[in-house]
Task: inverse folding
């Protein structure tokens, strides 16, 4: 997408160099390296929105977004005992990019959000935030084949299985031939995140540092290993270390695959534990105009395995809309769990995709449902089986035009027979829970 931009005089631009930048905001995207071999002089960088031949000295991008999420029957009850919640969050994003295409550049991004949350039997809550989501300096050290970022930046790994977080710290990204390596370290919200709330600074003292190394085996296939140490991501004084092997192929047609094999160890006040997780699967996309696709996957995590706490578990399954890879309604962290995933999808038009995804959930060892999702709870759980239930999601996304995109995700979680709606022996089984998520984003 191309967004509106304008340029400032040379002196003003140099004055602002230490505050703003011009990378893309997601570390996975390498497009900011395009055109590095040919850098026009600063005096020539006056660009209109219709002229992409030279980079602008300063660009300003604006986006308006509306997010809505509804969770119904969160306590898995019947009739008038059902409890629901609704979240609405409109936001405006303002992004400044300075000296894009030059060895030294910067980015600053702020988001104005107004979040309203309503729950059954409770008064509505509203909070307005002005969040500083990114502010960093970038440096391209071509002689070292390395790109550096210093400040607050957004990092997402493949399938957002390890990280989807804004980190205050340093990132070094090395690329040579078929090899890639990211080394990062920092603290979450070390600087004040909400400019309207002083308490949003370094409240949890959450830290993360690690490295992800990959080798390119095909045009869309990366395989490698990772190691990540973090503290205070789940609980205070809790430290953990994750390491593992991974492979991802995201080709547009044919067999796409993912594979994650991970180990972790955790420690809280001398109480140590360790765990194992694996997540493997693939999507076959048929070569036709509608791109029909079939997905099959399996994920497992032992009882003591915990994800980083910084992940979001979101990816596409061949369509153009990201979804929660373990289900929209239960949306579990991968811990103490078996998940079988099957799906079908099709591109209704070149700009619209539709996917139907099924999940089957079973615990490795019997535990509370709340261990997987704090929003979904059942008071009457007799723990008679390790099977939790099943989920189904319908995912629809449309790229209306270059500036406007909409997404709709409808999900249902059907609990197993271990969950009841009451304490009596003849109480009916728990009723399903439902979720609906909607997003619309306009960029200009």
Result:
């Amino acid at each position: 997408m191309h967004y509106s931009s304008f340029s400032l005089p040379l002196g003003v631009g140099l004055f602002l160099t230490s505050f703003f930048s011009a990378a893309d905001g997601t570390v996975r995207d390498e497009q900011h390296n395009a055109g590095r071999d040919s850098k026009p002089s600063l005096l020539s960088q006056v660009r209109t929105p219709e002229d992409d031949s030279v980079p602008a000295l300063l660009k300003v991008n604006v986006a308006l977004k509306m997010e809505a999420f509804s969770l119904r029957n969160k306590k898995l009850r019947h009739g008038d005992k059902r409890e629901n919640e609704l979240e609405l969050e409109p936001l405006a994003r303002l992004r400044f990019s300075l000296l894009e295409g030059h060895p030294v550049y910067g980015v600053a991004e702020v988001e104005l959000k107004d979040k309203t949350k309503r729950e059954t039997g409770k008064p509505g809550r509203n909070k307005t935030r002005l969040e500083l989501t990114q502010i960093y300096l970038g440096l391209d050290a071509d002689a070292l084949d390395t790109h550096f970022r210093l400040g607050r930046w957004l990092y997402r790994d493949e399938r957002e299985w390890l990280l989807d977080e804004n980190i205050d710290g340093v990132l070094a990204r090395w690329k040579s031939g078929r090899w890639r390596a990211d080394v990062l370290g920092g603290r979450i919200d070390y600087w004040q995140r909400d400019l309207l709330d002083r308490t949003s600074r370094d409240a949890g003292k959450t830290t993360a540092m690690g490295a992800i190394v990959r080798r390119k085996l095909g045009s869309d296939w990366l395989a490698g290993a990772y190691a990540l140490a973090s503290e205070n991501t789940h609980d205070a004084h809790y430290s953990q270390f994750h390491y593992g092997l991974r492979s991802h192929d995201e080709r547009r047609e044919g067999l796409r695959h993912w594979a994650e094999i991970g180990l972790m160890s955790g420690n809280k006040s001398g109480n140590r534990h360790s765990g194992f997780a694996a997540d493997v699967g693939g999507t076959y996309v048929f070569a036709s105009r509608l791109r029909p696709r079939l997905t099959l996957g399996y994920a497992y995590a032992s009882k003591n395995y915990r994800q980083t706490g910084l992940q979001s578990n979101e990816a596409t399954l061949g369509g153009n809309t990201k979804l929660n890879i373990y289900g929209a309604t239960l949306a579990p962290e991968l811990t103490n769990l078996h998940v079988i995933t099957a799906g079908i999808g099709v591109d209704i038009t070149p700009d619209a995709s539709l996917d139907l995804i099924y999940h089957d959930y079973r615990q490795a060892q019997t535990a509370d449902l709340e261990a997987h999702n704090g929003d979904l709870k059942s008071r009457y759980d007799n723990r008679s089986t390790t099977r939790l239930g099943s989920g189904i999601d319908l995912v629809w996304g449309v790229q209306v035009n270059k500036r406007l995109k909409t997404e709709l995700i409808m999900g249902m979680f059907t609990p197993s027979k271990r969950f009841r709606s009451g304490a009596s022996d003849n109480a009916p089984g728990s009723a399903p829970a439902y979720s609906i998520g909607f997003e619309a984003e306009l960029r200009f």
User: Anything to note?
Assistant: The longest strand covers residues 125-141. The chain has one helix and 22 strands. The radius of gyration is 23 Å. Residues 10-15 form the longest helix (6 residues).
